[in-house]
Each structure stands twice: as C-alpha cells, then as structure tokens.
Amino acid sequence: MHELTLEWQEARYTKTEIIRDEQPSKNPGTVRIGRDPARCDIVLSDPTVSGLHVEVFFNAASHAFVLRNLRKTNPPMVDGRQIPQGEVTLRQSSTICLGQVELKVVAVSIKAPNSTVPPTILIPPNASVPVNQPAPSAFSYGLECPSCHRISPYERMALGCQWCGTSLAAAASVLMTPNTYQG
Asked: Do residues 103 and 96 lie in contact, with contact meaning Cβ atoms separated by under 8 Å?
C-alpha cells in the first residue's frame, strides 16, 4: 500500500490526514480536498479554500502521488509554484497552499512495483519518533461521528464534526491508536 501524509494547522490544532492509494472516497481513485463536505474527503474550513479545490491520487504509471488542480480561479501553489491547471508530483516536504492554508507532505511511503519488500517510511528530520514508549501512552480516546464515522479529538465536541457538521454530542467514544485520528 502506498501512503502520503499531510499535516496542517487549523484552529490552533495540528491536523494530520493519511492518503492511501485505493482508499474509499467520494470520487473513487482520488482524495478531494476543499471546503465543501459534500464533495470533499478532506475538508478545510478556511474561507480562502475553494469548495472543491484539488484532488490527490496515486499515479501507478509514474509511481508517485500527484496533485490535480480542480479550479480555474484560486489555483493551488505547490512548493512556491502556482499550478493554474494540470497536475504536479508531490514529494516528501512538498508544501501545498490552498488559499491561505498551508499543507505539508510530511511522509511518503511507496512500495516498489512488484516488490515483496515492505515500503520505506520516510520521516522528516525534525520529527520526534517515540522509542520504547509504554503502551498506555500510545492510545487515547476520540469521538466517532454518527453520520460520517470519522474520528475527531474530544476538543471538537462543542464544535461538531469538521467534515459533515453533525453534532458530536451523541458520538461514540472510541479508543484510538496514534494513526487513528483523522483530523
């Protein structure tokens, strides 16, 4: 499985989302990013982000993750270069600007074609990696949205689901591993 990890700041929180090839999405084969929860898999609330801004997908031919612009106006910028149309390959440490929101590609894991070798996970140089961390501190609790079933931290309870807007007052409390948070 191929994975790309995005990270950004929203409302004083660091958000992380993992994009996988072949993951279920609203537009199969791609993960769409924008402000509209009805059309996007990753929803950004900033008003400078378009309703449907970009999509990210794994291109099997080039064996890389690619960002495709879906806007003629308000185009994204990748690594300081405006992308008025078309596609651009994403790499670890790529910076994506959608309006005033800056998303960083913090990790890319790509398995070599026809390989039985596990994928290499690239970790940024400034990342802290826990070593010999006791199991209880590796887990926490979150809230599962009753509508879209995405997991949010408890801090979102009063704000509602960031993807579909549903109240989290009736959300189920779930045990999360470090990779469960979808926010």
From this structure: yes
Structure tokens at 154: 């408890």
pLDDT in tens, 43-70: 999 999 999 999 999 998 888 999 999 9
Spatial contact of 152 and 170, defined as CB atoms under 8 Å apart: no
Contacts with 123 (C-beta within 8 Å, 6 or more apart), sequence order: 107, 129
Res. 161 pLDDT band, cuts 50 70 90: confident
Tokens of residue 103, six digits: 């998303």
What gap in Å lies between CA 126 and CA 144, rounded to an integer?
Answer: 31
CA distance 127 to 104: 13
DSSP one-letter string for 18-66 = EEETT---SBTTBEEEES-TTT-SEE---TTS-SS-EEEEEETTTTEEE
State the DSSP H helix or E strand holding residue 166, giving kind and residue range, or none if neither.
Answer: none
Residue 159, sorted as left (phi over 0), alpha (psi -120 to 50) or beta, turns out to be alpha
CA-CA distance, 71 to 174, in Å (whole number)? Answer: 37
